[in-house]
Amino acid sequence: MEFIFDLNAVRQHRDRAAARLNSVAPVLDSLATRLLDRLEDTKRQFTTALDLGGRGAIAPALIAQGMQVVSADISAAMAAKAGGTQHLLPSEDFGLEPHKYDLILAHFSLHWINDLPGALIQLRRALQPGGLFLASLPVLGTLGGLRTALLEAEEACTGGVSPRVSPFPDLRDCAGLLQRAGFALPVADVEEIELSYANPLALLRDLRDAGETNAVLARSKKTPPRAMFAQALTRLEPAQGRMQALLRMAVLTGWAS
Question: Quick one: average pLDDT of 43-47?
Answer without folding.
Answer: 92
